[in-house]
Amino acid sequence: MGLLHRVSRRGALAGLVAAGLALVLAPATSTSADIRPAPAQAAGRPPLAGKVVGIDPGHNGLNYTSPAFLNRKVWNGREWEGCDTTGTRTAGGYTEARFNWNVAVYLRADLIRMGARVVMTRTANHGLGPCVDTRSRILNRAHANVSIDIHADYGPVSGRGFTVLEPVADGPNNKVIGSSRRFGRDVHAMMLRDTAFRVSNYYGRDGYISRNDLAGLNLTMMPKVLIETGNMRNAADAALLVSPKVQRAVAAALAAAIARFLAGH
Question: I need a surface site. Which of 78, 117, 163, 204 has the fewest CB within 10 A?
Answer without folding.
Answer: 78
